[in-house]
Amino acid sequence: MITYFFRRLVLMVPTLIGITLLTFMLIRLAPGLGAMGGEHGRALSVQEQNARKSLYGLDKPPLTAYAIWLGHLLRGDFGDSSADHRPVLDKIGERLPLTLFLNGSSLLLTFAIAVPLGICSALRRGKLIDHSISIFLLVLYCIPTFVAALALIMIVAGGDYLNLLPMYGVASFDAETLSLPGRIVDYLLHMLLPITCLTYLGLASLTRYSRLSLLDVLARDFVRTARAKGLNDQAVVFRHALRNALMPLITLLALEIPGLIGGSIIIEQLFTLPGTGHLVIQSINNRDTNVIMAITTLTAILTLLSYLAADMLYALSDPRVRLQ
Amino acid sequence: MKIPYLLLFGLILVSAGCSRNESHSIPVASSPADDERVPVPGDWITYYIDTEPDTLNPVLAQLSISNTIAQYISEPLVQRDPQTFALSPWLAASWEISPDKLIYTFHLRRDVKWDDGAPFTAEDVKFTMDKLLDPKTVTFLQGYFQTIKSYSVLDPYTIRFFATKPYYRLLESFNDILIIPEHAFVKGGDFNSDPFNRHPIGTGPYRFVRWVTGSQVVLERRDDYWGAKAYPKRLLFQLVEQPSTALQLLKKGELDVMDGIAPLRYQRELLGSASMARLNTCVYTQPNLTWLGFNLRRPLFSDVRVRHAIDLLLPRAEMQKMAGGPEFNPLCTGSEMPGTPRYNSAVLPTPLDPVLAGQLLDQAGWKLSPRDGYRYRDGKRLAFTLAYETGGLNAMEVLMQEALQKAGIALSLDGMDGPRLNDELNHWNYDAYFWGWVSDLDDDPFTLWHSSQAVIPGSANCVGYQSREADRLIEQAQVEFDADKRNALYRQLNQVVHDDYPACFLFTGSTIMLVSKRLENVQISQIGYEPFLAQVYIPLSKQKHRDP
User: Fold this and answer.
1) Based on the structure, what is the number of domains in chain A?
2) Long-range contact set of residues B482-485: C-beta below 8 Å, sequence gap at least 24
C-alpha cells in the first residue's frame, strides 16, 4: 500500500501540470487581459500600456510566460497580485481562515444533521416520517442558495420586517467597542445566516446517501444472522449495521475537502464575507492572473490529495479493498 | 448580546425621527450644545462603498473609490471651490504663473504637518512628482503632466515647475494629484508595493486607522489638522458587495450614507417606503455620459448618412425612461455635460425620425428588400454588431435592436464584461459600442476627439474621429487661459462633433445619494466629488457612538 501511495503521489505531478497549464492558457486567451484594471474613461498611452504589459509578463508568448510562472512556483513564489501589488499568498492567507470556518462548520453541520435523518428514514422506511423527511429536504434542495439568502436577509435581518440578525460582514462595524465575549457572540451571530444557507442545500443528498447505505447494509446476510441469534434491534442497527453503512460516507467527506478552500462564491458575495470565494470573483473581474492561478493550483492540489485520501481511507476501513 | 443591542438601535432611530418634529412644536430651553444648529464634534459616519479600494496611495489609485477615501487623508496643492469651481489655494498658499504660461511657482503653507508629526515641505511635492512620472510606477495620472519639462525646489516651501508649452489645464492637474510624504516610504524600495499603500500618512483632516480587507476602512479625525477641523470623530467606509444588501442596511439605519444609487432602484425600492422618513435625498450630476459610438474605420460607417440615419432611429425617449427619466437623465448632444458653460444648448438632441432616416439610407444606396425587410447594397445586408457591457437588465440594447430592425438594419448584440469591452475598444475590434464615458470637470477633449489620437490604439478616441475643424478648436482651446473664451470654443466643438455623428449621444447620468437625517450640514456640490463628510456634523441628541 505504501508503494501505491507513492506511485499515486508521483502521478499527481503531470496531472497538476496539466491543470495549471490549461488554466493559465484559458486566462491568457480570455479577452480583456490588456485592459488591466482601472475604470473606463482613463485611457493609457501606448508607452504606459507597454510598460504595464512587460511588468505583468504579457509581452511574452503564453508558453514562455507559463514556464516562468512554473519556475517561480517551484521556488514557492506565487507572485504578486496585479490589482494592488501585494504577494498573492498574503492575500489568500488573510481570507482563508474565514472561508475554512464557514465551509468547515457547514460541512460538519451537514453531516451532523443529515446522517441521523438518514438513519431515521431508513429505520422507518415507507412510513410517514420517511416521506416527510424526503419531501421536506427535496423542497429545500429546490430553493437556490441566492434566493434563500436574499429571502432570509429580507425577512429576518432587513429593515422592512424582522430586524433580528446582522446581515452582512463578519462583525458589527463598532465591534471594537464590545468586550471579548461580546465580540465572539457578535461574530457567531454574523455567521448564522451564511452557515444556514451553506448547510441546507447539502442535506438532501447526504440524507439520501446515508438512508440508502443503511438500507443496503440492513438487507445483508450478516444483519439477518445477527437478528437470528437474538440480538436486540438497537444492537443490530447501531453496533453492526451502522458502522458498515457509514463507510461510503467517509469517502464523501474526503471528497468535500477541496471545496473548503474554494469558497462559496455566491454566499460570500451576498453577505459580503471577505473569504476566498470573494477573492476569486474579484480577481477574475480584474484579470488578476497570479491570484487566479494560485487559488486554482491550491484547489487542484487539495482535490488530488483528498481523492488519494479517500481511496486510502476506503482501503483502511474495508480490509477487502486491496490497492494495487 | 447582540439582539438587545439591535433593539436599542431601533429605538434610538425612532426617537431620533420624532425629536425633529418635537423640537419644532415644543420650545426647549436648551444649552447651545443641544441646539441642532450648532455644529458639534463627535460620533461616527458609516459610508457605503461597493468596491474594495485597490490602494490608499493616491498616486497609484486606479479605482475612483480609492480616491474617495484617500482625499480625506491626503491633499492637493490647489483645491476646487465646491460652489464656484474656481481653483483656490490649499497646500499651496499662493502661486505665480509667468506671463508666457511656462513657469509655475508654488509657495507652500508653512503650518502643515503630516499626521506623524513631520513637517510638510517642497521636498514632498518633488517626491510625489518624481514617483508619479517614474515609468516604473503603475499610475493613471501621468497623462495629466505631459507638458511638464522639469521642476526644482527653490527653498523648503517653494517649488517651481517648467512647462514645455502653455496649457490651460496644467494648474487644474495640481488639483488631481494628492501629495504623499517622502519620509514614509522605504528608501529604494518598490513604490508599487510599498507598505505605505495600505497604511497611508497624510496632511488631511483625517488619519488612517485601519483597513480590514473585504470589510472596512476606518479613519479618525485629526485634532492637530491645520485647516478647519472635521466634526465626525470617525469615518467608516463599509464595503457591501450587493446593492440590495446595502439598501437593507440603509433601511436598518446601519449605513449613514449610500452613494451611487441608480435612479430606477431609487424609484422602485425607496420612494414611498417607510424608511424614507429617516433619509434625505441628494441628487447630483456626474460628468457621466452614455452614447453609442461607431468604429469609423469600418467601411459601413465611413458614410455620414448611415451614422445620421442610425441616430435618427434611436428611441431616445424610451431609453431615457428606462434609465430613470428626464429628471435624472437629461439628454445630451456631445461629450459635455448639459447645464455647464461648455455645453452648447443650441445643438438639439436628434429627434426620432424614421422617415428621414429611410431617405438618408436610400440616398446612401441601402435599399429595402421586400423579401426579408432588410436593407441591401450590392447584395450585402446592412448589418453590424453592438458591443456592450453585460450586467443589469440590458434592455436598452434590445430596444435599439428592435428600432433599427424596423428600419431594415440588422443589429447583432454582443454583450461582454467590462475588461473585455475595454480591450476590444482599445484594439478597435468592434463595429459599434454602447457605453458610458466618465470625464473630469473642465477636462480636455484632446484625447477624445483629436485626430492625432485616432491612430493610437488604446487612446480615448477609439471611434477614430478625425476632423480638421475639431482639431483646430481643440488646439486653440488648449492655450486659451480665459475660461469664457475657452468655453465658447468648446461650444463650437460641441456643434462640430455632433454634426459629424461619430457617435449617437444619448443622455447623462445622475447620481442619487441617500443620507441619514442624523447628519446635518450635508453640502454636495453639483459634481459631488469633494470630501464633504468632514464638514458634516451630528447633533448631540442623535449621536450613537462612543469612542472606542
Assistant:
1) 1
2) B483/B341, B484/B341
**A282 within a domain of the structure (yes/no):** yes
Grid cell for residue A80? 504578486
Helix (DSSP H) and strand (DSSP E) numbers for chain B: 15, 19
> What are the residues whose beta carbons fall under 8 Å from the beta carbon of A318, sequence distance 6 or more?
A247
pLDDT, tens digit, 9 for 90 and up, residues A100-122: 999 999 999 999 999 999 999 99
Are B1 and A164 an interchain contact pair (Cβ–Cβ within 8 Å)? no
Strands B380-381 and B375-377, how do they pair?
antiparallel
- Put simply, whether A280 touches B (Cβ < 8 Å) is no
Alpha-carbon dihedral B251, B256, B261, B264, rounded to 10 degrees: 30
Give the DSSP per-residue string, A84-112: T--BHHHHHHHHHHHHHHHHHHHHHHHHH
Q: Which A residues 190-249 touch B at CB under 8 Å? A: none
CA A283, CA A267: separation in Å to the nearest integer? 17
Query: Predicted confidence band at B16 (pLDDT cuts at 50, 70, 90)?
Result: very low
Is A40 an interface residue toward B (CB < 8 Å)?
yes
Greatest alpha-carbon span in chain A: 87
DSSP-H helix ranges across chain A: 2-29, 46-55, 62-74, 88-123, 128-142, 145-152, 180-218, 221-228, 233-234, 242-256, 258-262, 265-270, 276-286, 289-317
Put simply, whether A163 touches B (Cβ < 8 Å) is yes
Instruction: Give the domain extent around A208.
Output: 91-286
Q: Are B335 and B497 in contact (CB under 8 A)?
A: yes
Q: Is the CB of A43 inside 8 Å of chain B's CB atoms?
A: yes
**Closest residue in A to B212 (Cα–Cα):** A274
Residue pLDDT, tens place only, B171-191: 988 988 999 999 999 998 999
Report if residue A165 sits inside a domain.
yes
By three-state DSSP, how is residue B40 classified? coil
- A16, part of any domain: no
Helix A2-29 / helix A289-317 crossing angle, nearest 10 deg = 160
Look at B423 and A32 and tell me if their CB atoms are within 8 Å. Answer: yes
Q: Looking at the domain assignment, is residue A255 inside a domain? A: yes
CATH code for the domain of A175: 1.10.3720.10
pTM: 0.82
Q: What are phi and psi of A318, to 5 degrees?
A: -130, 105
